[in-house]
Amino acid sequence: MVRTSTATTGRATARQPVQSAAAAVGGVFLLIGVAGFIPGITTEYGEMSFAGHDSHAYLFGLFQVSVLHNIVHLLFGVGGLALARTVSAARLYLVGGGALYLVLWLYGLAIDHASAANFLPVNHQDNWLHLGLGLGMLALGLLFNRRPVIGR
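RE: above sequence
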Protein backbone atom coordinates (compact mmCIF):
# COMPACT_ATOMS: atom_id res chain seq x y z
CA MET A 1 0.00 0.00 0.00
CA VAL A 2 1.42 3.39 -1.00
CA ARG A 3 0.68 6.23 1.38
CA THR A 4 -0.40 9.47 -0.15
CA SER A 5 -0.33 13.06 0.94
CA THR A 6 -2.57 15.94 -0.03
CA ALA A 7 -0.45 18.68 1.54
CA THR A 8 -0.64 22.15 -0.05
CA THR A 9 -1.91 21.14 -3.51
CA GLY A 10 -4.93 19.05 -2.59
CA ARG A 11 -3.68 16.36 -4.98
CA ALA A 12 -2.58 12.97 -3.74
CA THR A 13 1.13 12.24 -4.18
CA ALA A 14 2.86 8.92 -3.65
CA ARG A 15 5.14 8.57 -0.66
CA GLN A 16 8.73 8.65 -1.88
CA PRO A 17 11.22 5.88 -1.01
CA VAL A 18 13.34 8.32 1.02
CA GLN A 19 10.33 8.96 3.25
CA SER A 20 9.77 5.24 3.78
CA ALA A 21 13.46 4.75 4.56
CA ALA A 22 13.44 7.59 7.11
CA ALA A 23 10.30 6.20 8.74
CA ALA A 24 11.82 2.70 8.90
CA VAL A 25 15.08 3.97 10.41
CA GLY A 26 13.16 6.13 12.88
CA GLY A 27 10.97 3.18 13.83
CA VAL A 28 14.01 0.99 14.48
CA PHE A 29 15.59 3.69 16.68
CA LEU A 30 12.34 4.02 18.60
CA LEU A 31 12.22 0.25 19.20
CA ILE A 32 15.89 0.18 20.25
CA GLY A 33 15.26 3.04 22.68
CA VAL A 34 12.38 1.13 24.27
CA ALA A 35 14.37 -2.13 24.30
CA GLY A 36 17.11 -0.39 26.26
CA PHE A 37 14.67 -0.06 29.17
CA ILE A 38 13.59 -3.72 29.18
CA PRO A 39 15.41 -6.02 31.60
CA GLY A 40 16.54 -9.19 29.84
CA ILE A 41 16.92 -7.47 26.48
CA THR A 42 19.29 -5.17 28.35
CA THR A 43 21.65 -7.27 30.45
CA GLU A 44 22.85 -5.99 33.83
CA TYR A 45 19.83 -3.70 33.79
CA GLY A 46 20.24 -2.95 37.51
CA GLU A 47 23.71 -1.57 36.80
CA MET A 48 22.43 1.10 34.38
CA SER A 49 23.34 4.66 35.29
CA PHE A 50 21.81 7.84 33.95
CA ALA A 51 24.93 8.71 31.95
CA GLY A 52 28.64 8.04 31.86
CA HIS A 53 31.10 5.25 31.33
CA ASP A 54 30.24 3.62 34.66
CA SER A 55 26.93 2.28 33.31
CA HIS A 56 27.29 -1.48 33.11
CA ALA A 57 24.04 -2.22 31.24
CA TYR A 58 24.34 -3.74 27.76
CA LEU A 59 21.65 -3.83 25.10
CA PHE A 60 21.53 -7.40 23.75
CA GLY A 61 24.55 -8.05 25.97
CA LEU A 62 26.79 -6.13 23.50
CA PHE A 63 26.15 -2.41 23.33
CA GLN A 64 26.80 -0.32 26.43
CA VAL A 65 23.77 1.83 27.25
CA SER A 66 22.60 4.28 29.88
CA VAL A 67 19.34 6.08 30.51
CA LEU A 68 20.66 9.05 28.50
CA HIS A 69 21.76 6.76 25.64
CA ASN A 70 18.28 5.20 25.51
CA ILE A 71 16.60 8.61 25.59
CA VAL A 72 18.78 9.72 22.64
CA HIS A 73 17.61 6.64 20.70
CA LEU A 74 13.97 7.42 21.52
CA LEU A 75 14.31 11.06 20.44
CA PHE A 76 16.19 10.09 17.28
CA GLY A 77 13.40 7.62 16.49
CA VAL A 78 10.60 10.12 17.05
CA GLY A 79 12.54 12.63 14.94
CA GLY A 80 12.84 10.15 12.09
CA LEU A 81 9.12 9.41 12.12
CA ALA A 82 8.26 13.11 12.21
CA LEU A 83 10.74 14.08 9.49
CA ALA A 84 9.55 11.27 7.21
CA ARG A 85 6.48 13.39 6.44
CA THR A 86 8.21 15.31 3.65
CA VAL A 87 10.83 14.32 1.10
CA SER A 88 13.29 17.07 1.98
CA ALA A 89 13.01 16.50 5.74
CA ALA A 90 13.37 12.73 5.30
CA ARG A 91 16.51 13.25 3.24
CA LEU A 92 17.86 15.69 5.84
CA TYR A 93 17.21 13.13 8.60
CA LEU A 94 19.04 10.35 6.75
CA VAL A 95 21.99 12.37 5.44
CA GLY A 96 22.34 14.58 8.52
CA GLY A 97 21.82 11.66 10.89
CA GLY A 98 24.31 9.59 8.94
CA ALA A 99 26.89 12.35 9.18
CA LEU A 100 26.18 12.70 12.90
CA TYR A 101 26.72 8.98 13.44
CA LEU A 102 30.03 9.14 11.57
CA VAL A 103 31.12 11.97 13.89
CA LEU A 104 30.00 9.87 16.87
CA TRP A 105 32.04 6.93 15.49
CA LEU A 106 35.15 9.12 15.27
CA TYR A 107 34.47 10.50 18.75
CA GLY A 108 34.17 6.97 20.12
CA LEU A 109 37.50 6.03 18.55
CA ALA A 110 39.24 9.14 19.89
CA ILE A 111 38.16 9.09 23.54
CA ASP A 112 39.29 6.92 26.41
CA HIS A 113 36.24 4.75 27.15
CA ALA A 114 37.06 4.84 30.87
CA SER A 115 37.05 8.66 31.01
CA ALA A 116 34.40 11.26 31.73
CA ALA A 117 34.40 12.07 27.99
CA ASN A 118 32.47 8.82 27.47
CA PHE A 119 29.24 10.36 28.75
CA LEU A 120 26.71 8.47 26.56
CA PRO A 121 28.41 5.77 27.04
CA VAL A 122 29.91 3.94 24.05
CA ASN A 123 32.07 0.84 23.78
CA HIS A 124 33.94 -0.77 20.88
CA GLN A 125 30.80 -2.53 19.61
CA ASP A 126 28.92 0.79 19.67
CA ASN A 127 31.73 2.42 17.70
CA TRP A 128 31.47 -0.07 14.84
CA LEU A 129 27.68 0.03 14.93
CA HIS A 130 27.87 3.83 14.63
CA LEU A 131 30.09 3.46 11.57
CA GLY A 132 27.57 1.10 9.96
CA LEU A 133 24.63 3.34 10.86
CA GLY A 134 26.39 6.42 9.54
CA LEU A 135 27.27 4.83 6.21
CA GLY A 136 23.88 3.15 5.91
CA MET A 137 21.88 6.29 6.62
CA LEU A 138 24.03 8.34 4.25
CA ALA A 139 23.60 5.71 1.55
CA LEU A 140 19.81 5.67 1.98
CA GLY A 141 19.59 9.46 1.92
CA LEU A 142 21.75 9.74 -1.19
CA LEU A 143 20.46 6.63 -2.98
CA PHE A 144 16.90 7.87 -2.81
CA ASN A 145 17.94 11.38 -3.83
CA ARG A 146 16.41 11.16 -7.27
CA ARG A 147 12.71 11.39 -7.94
CA PRO A 148 11.19 9.04 -10.49
CA VAL A 149 10.79 10.52 -13.95
CA ILE A 150 7.14 10.54 -15.06
CA GLY A 151 6.66 10.85 -18.77
CA ARG A 152 9.02 12.77 -21.05
